[in-house]
Design goal:
Blueprint: H1 2-11, H2 13-16, H3 24-31, E1 41-45, H4 51-59, E2 65-69, H5 73-82, E3 89-92, H6 99-105, E4 113-116, H7 125-138, E5 146-151, H8 156-159, E6 165-171, E7 178-184, E8 206-207, E9 213-214
Parallel strand pairs: 1-2, 1-4, 2-3, 4-5
Antiparallel strand pairs: 5-7, 6-7, 8-9
Helix pairs in contact: 3-4
Bound molecules: S-adenosylmethionine.
S-adenosylmethionine binds at residues 15-18, 21-22, 45-48, 51-52, 69-72, 75, 95-96, 117-119.
């Protein structure tokens, strides 16, 4: 499977952004952030060849749904073949930005969890914030509902100011090591995000005319 990964990386390095899939340790640590004891609706952005998707599908409740948003047609085809016998899993070969439209097509009001493996750090700042806004609005209004990401840097915490609470940890057992961050839809006292920051003490960046950030 790593061969498919490397092949797709060589074709589209900026979109794939990694030459190998996530390690088994990273996959397990990411999956530990989800409560699978009851049925869940879960969306995953950028599943690639499906290492996180397989672990989620293995652990999730029989009445759960897993929607996989994968931009790359080769990976999407590979995922379709892999999950052909699991009616809980649906592969959507489109941009993660289409999440709200795809949810409304299926009459799904919200997701309980959204997992992202897409290279957020290299997205242009307005696209990044637009996707964060859609992600926040697509999450269910309950205490455990969360957006989970794994990234080489933790720069997204500066941008994800809609989320009232975030927790990060570092996973060294991956090439390269990754931050795993969970952005909760609600704060500890049940409050929703209000745009006043995620409690991480970072000053909000101000965009310049060319879309780059300054502080
Ligand atoms: C670094 S790979 C991660 C793959 C896999 N999740 C893993 O952990 O091994 C990033 C994946 O995100 C996909 N991707 C990038 N931008 C995307 C977007 N806007 N919407 C959906 N998928 C995207 C790429 O095609 C690629 O499969």
């Amino acid at each position: 499977m790593s061969f498919l990964f490397l092949k797709e990386f060589l074709k589209k390095p900026m979109q794939i952004a990694s030459i190998v899939p996530s390690s088994p340790t990273l996959v397990r640590r990411v999956a530990s952030k989800f409560d699978f004891s009851v049925p869940r609706t879960i969306a995953e952005f950028g599943p690639g060849e499906g290492c996180h998707s397989r672990e989620i599908a293995r652990r999730m409740h029989p009445n759960s749904r897993l929607l996989l948003f994968e931009l790359d047609a080769q990976f999407a085809g590979h995922l379709k073949r892999q999950f052909a016998r699991d009616p809980r899993v649906e592969i959507i070969n489109t941009d993660a930005q289409d999440l709200p439209a795809e949810l409304s097509k299926r009459n799904i009001p919200h997701c309980d969890y959204i997992l992202s493996g897409i290279p957020f750090s290299i997205l242009e700042v307005n696209k990044k914030r637009g996707l964060l806004q859609k992600t926040f609005e697509s999450l269910a209004p309950h205490a455990g509902s969360a957006f989970v990401i794994y990234q080489v840097t933790n720069e997204l915490r500066r941008h994800a100011t809609l989320f009232p609470r975030a927790e990060s940890e570092y996973c060294l057992q991956n090439l390269p090591p990754m931050f795993i961050t969970v952005f909760y839809k609600q704060g500890l006292n049940g409050n929703h995000g209000n745009g006043n920051g995620n409690g991480n003490g970072h000053k909000l960046p101000v965009e310049s005319a060319n879309g780059h950030e300054r502080f």
